[in-house]
Amino acid sequence: MLEYNGIHYQTHPEVYEPAEDTFLFAENLQVERRDRVLEIGTGTGIIAIITSKKCRTVTATDVNPHAIDCTLKNIITNKSFNVELRKGDLFEPVQEEKFDLILFNTPYLPTGEDEKVDDELDAAWDGGANGREVIDRFLEGLEDHLNPGGKVQLVQSSLSDIDKTIEKLSEIGLDASVTAREKFFFEEVVVITGMPKS
Ligand SMILES: C[S@@+](CC[C@H](N)C(=O)[O-])C[C@H]1O[C@@H](n2cnc3c(N)ncnc32)[C@H](O)[C@@H]1O
Fold first, then answer.
1. pTM score, whole prediction
2. Which of 13, 88, 114, 164 has the fewest CB atoms within 10 Å, measured from its CB?
3. Domain spans of the chain, in order of start
């Protein structure tokens, strides 16, 4: 069992283990007590569990079935009973639903065909050839799932075109900027926050 800021969690060999990007996200969440939150790509569920302590409800999703199992165990350990879990691709598990805050630590690494790994863990970082395959699909579906006045926060890398994400968020009427950043050896990892334009 691992521990982060009072959250006790277990991992699984085919689930993304919380790392520097997870902790950067955790430290820069902009959650409000009244929020209904969606977290896409929950992994071990650590972001959903932290968020659930500060808001009304969290719906947490992942394409990886091992992530759903792992998160369920972590929800029970941390008694985070306002987290609801669903398995599926991006917004597919939340069809007609809308949220006040949508969170996603995206699979943001540019990944060549020869770099893919043949298990569920691949989905944790595989952003396709330009690193934007999942990010762009996410941004296309986002507007339909935000309540009026809703916000989005996502994590990505400088390797997958930060300006393009900010531009696309602006196109759907959000005021977007980098709200946290951390440099690593070959990239910068950022949290991008999109707020309603005032
Ligand atoms: C970088 S990991 C982040 C995990 C966790 N939120 C964290 O911060 O530690 C990305 C997660 O997104 C999931 N994922 C990737 N593509 C997805 C998609 N199209 N729909 C839903 N989840 C997806 C992966 O399985 C993985 O758990």
1. 0.98
2. 114
3. 2-196
Q: φ and ψ at 37, to 5 degrees?
A: -115, 145
Q: What is the CATH number of domain 2-196?
A: 3.40.50.150
**Atom in ligand 1 nearest the alpha carbon of residue 104:** 6
| pLDDT tens digits for range 88-113 | 999 999 999 999 999 999 999 998 88
Nearest CA to ligand 1 atom 16: 123
Indicate whether residue 18 lines ligand 1 (CB < 6 A). yes
Q: What is the mean pLDDT of the chain?
A: 96
Q: What is the pLDDT of residues 76-90, one digit of tens each?
A: 999 999 999 999 999
Q: 153 CB less than 6 Å from ligand 1?
A: no
Instruction: Tell me, using a 6 A CB cutoff, whether residue 60 lines ligand 1.
Output: no
CB 124 less than 6 A from any atom of ligand 1: yes
Contact indicator for 132, 164 with CB cutoff of 8 Å: yes
Distance 104 CA to ligand 1 centre (A): 7
